[in-house]
Design goal:
alpha/beta, elongated, 6-stranded antiparallel beta sheet, 18% strand
Length: 405
């Protein structure tokens, strides 16, 4: 009720003008033909019952059915916007990828007794999939006391350990602190050529170590993106805080429009805002804290199962299974609900216009017959909306997903 679609709000406004217009028209026709019964009949038959109920019954039935399928629409406005969305933007880690990365290689540039302890102590409290991979790799290292731990969004971590200033993060974090990355340049180049993610560890402005992490794409992502394109999605993008080479590798594999790496949360949001200002309906799919600003700014924000609390709270649609086919189903179902709404409006308008024509120009049309047809049209609109509750979903990875009613 709080998030009515534009069509629903339009019908609410339309009803406020339509009802007094029918009242005046009925009085006018009664005076012209000097027939009180005609005026009352026009007033009764012109009641916008089916018009008013057509949109909410479709939305409520559609939202209820979607919820049973593990697709949570937060309001009817969400359905309308998702149905018309033609641009989809994805986060990479945990969204397009499985979110269960593993350490591929760890390189030390200096002899240091606490490198593994630094890694584990800094990452153990973090929820990012890359952090979990590193903790699992060095889980035997002893923990160390950390003070002044600071999370730098989109870049990494800063803390003081044993009175040493320790940094752990991407190349942007190291560069911002004017630390020489010369020892790690060769490793960085090799990791980027392989499309691997990596983080760098430094102590007191000296690079200690670098670790590369690999993550696999989710199963059937390419096929499901093709299904989205068949549903009217014209552009697909990746916005990631990871390095550009890793992003480019995925873009090439999935044949997406474009991708951008080294993106901070504010960069992602600015990109989304730019697309929206150009008139595009943008859907952002993400699951992390860094994605929250973009989820809020996008026309539609979608979070899948396993997303952070802030991402789920900020998004407009929540998918209770981390399966890209559910994303396709949500898009297709939104279009189905929107089409059902137009069917209801067409039925309601056709019945009202037909009844008004017959009551004015056909002598055989009586109030009782007109009321029977009018009430039947309301029943038809309700039943048409309730068809959505019986929608049949046929999901097949090798055939086109169908929604049949």
């Amino acid at each position: 009720q709080d998030k009515k679609s534009r069509a629903w709000r339009f019908m609410d406004r339309f009803s406020t003008y339509y009802t007094p217009a029918v009242l005046l028209f009925g009085i006018l026709m009664g005076l012209i033909f000097w027939d009180l019964a005609l005026g009352v009949t026009i007033l009764v038959l012109g009641c916008p019952g089916a018009l008013v109920i057509g949109i909410p019954v479709s939305n409520v039935a559609g939202i209820g059915f979607a919820a049973k399928q593990g697709i949570l629409f937060k309001g009817s406005e969400t359905i309308s916007d998702l149905a018309k969305s033609d641009v989809f933007i994805f986060d990479k880690t945990g969204t397009l990828t499985k979110g269960t990365p593993e350490v591929v290689e760890m390189i030390h540039f200096v002899e240091h007794p606490y490198i593994h302890s630094y890694y584990r102590s800094l990452e153990q409290s973090q929820t990012h999939p890359l952090a979990k991979a590193i903790v699992q790799y060095v889980n035997d290292a002893p923990l160390m006391e950390i003070t002044n731990l600071e999370v730098i969004k989109g870049k990494g971590l800063r803390a003081i350990i044993n009175n040493n200033h320790v940094l752990l993060g991407n190349i942007a974090l190291i560069s911002d602190n004017h630390i020489d990355v010369a020892p790690a340049k060769e490793a960085i180049k090799r990791f980027e050529e392989k499309g691997l993610s990596y983080v760098i560890l430094s102590e007191n402005n000296v690079v200690l170590s670098i670790v590369s992490i690999g993550d696999q794409l989710r199963d059937y992502v390419k096929e499901d993106l093709n299904r989205l394109k068949k549903l009217g999605v014209k552009e697909t993008y990746i916005l990631s805080g990871d390095n550009q080479a890793a992003v480019d590798g995925i873009i090439h594999k999935l044949k997406m429009t474009k991708g951008y790496g080294h993106m901070l949360p504010e960069d992602k949001k600015a990109f989304v805002d730019e697309l929206i200002s150009s008139g595009k309906k943008v859907t952002f799919v993400g699951d992390g804290i860094n994605d929250a600003p973009s989820l809020a700014s996008a026309t539609i924000g979608i979070t899948m199962k396993g997303g952070t609390d802030v991402a789920i709270e900020t998004s407009d649609v929540v998918l209770m299974q981390h399966d890209f086919l559910r994303l396709v189903t949500a898009k297709r179902l939104a279009q189905k609900i929107r089409w059902n709404i137009w069917e209801n409006l067409a039925i309601a308008i056709a019945v009202v216009l037909t009844l008004l024509y017959l009551v004015i120009f056909e002598e055989g049309m009586t109030m009782s017959i007109g009321m029977l047809v009018h009430e039947f049209s309301i029943l038809v609109v309700i039943l048409n909306g309730m068809r959505l509750l019986k929608t049949k979903i046929k999901e097949n990875r090798y055939e086109k997903t169908n929604l049949r009613t």
